[in-house]
């Protein structure tokens, strides 16, 4: 890939995570110079360290987050320190440095009780501690970077570089004849590398002055349930989808309440001159051929 010096230098926080690794890969594919910092490299709640890291960056992609949804129920203060206070520190450093901030947020800031896709300006209302902690971060970006802050909400994320629902379903295929999977939660399964490519495109549009700051919904088009996702993953893998049986959320009680409806609208992308992410089925069909998924089933991979 030819280098793209006009894009400047980018910084990716949370670079060891599933999305962080894919963002670095997407930046490399786009020929953009980037530095990736893991949690061990950068404490985003440390103002001095963050200012030093952000200096000279044109775009900062924040993938650093507390992601233990259930754990946040008993450690909300710790979750908010990362997802709220840490994001405020990053936003302040970006404001001082003149850098654009692409902050990855979540559908969990919304109440999850709608019947139609949530628009970008929908009223927030988290139903659990994790969602509340992430909303604090969103508010910090909106306050400190009204023009140069980009809040990208995603949901139902899966990818090659970490534990996720799709990988778990494929692993369990070799261990169980049937699986009971929740069929009363609705959302948009999103491949992390597809989101990473869109984050790069959004950052480039921001640098070109084509993308207004604000909220963007970085989820796949279409919608399904967890059962629908599992069945499609099995179908694409040559397994019998009927091995996946429907059940309800009541059968899998967890410490944190999950939103029943996590379907997001994507109108914001047009303001940036960009198309929304592809349909979830198309994303899954491409993702399933990547090594981390293909290797689980002995399938040929594309990379």
SSE diagram, text form:
Blueprint: E1 10-13, H1 18-29, E2 34-37, H2 47-54, E3 59-62, H3 76-97, E4 100-106, H4 129-144, E5 149-154, E6 157-158, H5 165-172, E7 179-182, E8 186-187, E9 190-191, H6 192-207, E10 214-217, E11 224-225, H7 226-236, E12 244-247, H8 268-271, H9 280-287, H10 291-297
Parallel strand pairs: 1-2, 1-3, 3-4, 4-5, 5-10, 6-9, 7-12
Antiparallel strand pairs: 8-11
Walkthrough of the structure:
There is one protein chain. With 303 residues, this protein is α/β, with parallel strands linked by helices. It has one domain (5-163, 187-223, 261-278): Rossmann fold (3-Layer(aba) Sandwich). 37% of the residues lie in helices and 15% in strands. The protein has 10 helices and 12 strands. It has helices spanning 18-29, 47-54, 76-97, 129-144, 165-172, 192-207, 226-236, 268-271, 280-287, 291-297; strands at 10-13, 34-37, 59-62, 100-106, 149-154, 157-158, 179-182, 186-187, 190-191, 214-217, 224-225, 244-247. Strands 2-1-3-4-5-10 form a 6-stranded parallel β-sheet, sandwiched between helices. Strand 1, helix 1 (18-29) and strand 2 (34-37) form a beta-alpha-beta unit. It is globular. Belongs to the dTDP-4-dehydrorhamnose reductase family. Pathway: Carbohydrate biosynthesis; dTDP-L-rhamnose biosynthesis. Its EC number is 1.1.1.133. Residues 10-290 form the RmlD-like substrate binding domain. Catalyzes the reduction of dTDP-6-deoxy-L-lyxo-4-hexulose to yield dTDP-L-rhamnose.
């Amino acid at each position: 890939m030819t280098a793209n010096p006009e894009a400047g230098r980018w910084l990716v926080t949370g670079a060891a995570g599933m999305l962080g690794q894919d963002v670095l890969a997407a930046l490399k594919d786009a020929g953009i110079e980037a530095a990736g910092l893991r949690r061990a490299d950068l404490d985003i709640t440390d103002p001095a360290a963050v200012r030093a890291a952000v200096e000279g960056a044109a775009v900062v992609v924040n993938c650093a987050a507390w992601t233990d949804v259930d754990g946040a129920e008993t450690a909300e203060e710790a979750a908010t320190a990362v997802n709220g206070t840490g994001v405020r520190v990053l936003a302040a450093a970006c404001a001082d440095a003149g850098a654009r901030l692409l902050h990855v947020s979540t559908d969990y800031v919304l109440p999850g009780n709608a019947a139609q896709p949530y628009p970008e300006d929908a009223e927030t209302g988290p139903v659990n501690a994790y969602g509340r902690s992430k909303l604090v971060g969103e508010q910090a970006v909106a306050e400190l970077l009204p023009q140069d802050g980009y809040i990208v909400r995603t949901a139902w994320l899966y990818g090659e570089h970490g534990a996720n629902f799709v990988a778990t379903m494929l692993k369990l295929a070799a261990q169980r004849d049937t699986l009971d999977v929740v069929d009363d939660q609705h959302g948009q399964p999103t491949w992390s590398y597809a989101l990473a490519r869109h984050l790069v495109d959004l950052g480039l549009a921001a640098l070109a002055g084509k993308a207004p700051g604000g909220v963007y919904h970085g989820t796949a088009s279409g919608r399904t349930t967890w059962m629908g996702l599992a069945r499609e993953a099995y179908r694409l893998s040559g397994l019998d989808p009927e091995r996946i049986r429907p059940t309800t959320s009541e059968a899998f009680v967890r410490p944190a309440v999950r939103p029943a409806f996590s379907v997001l609208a994507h109108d914001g992308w047009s303001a940036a001159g960009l198309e929304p992410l592809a349909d979830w089925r198309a994303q899954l069909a491409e993702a399933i051929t990547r090594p981390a998924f293909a290797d689980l089933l002995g399938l040929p991979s594309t990379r």
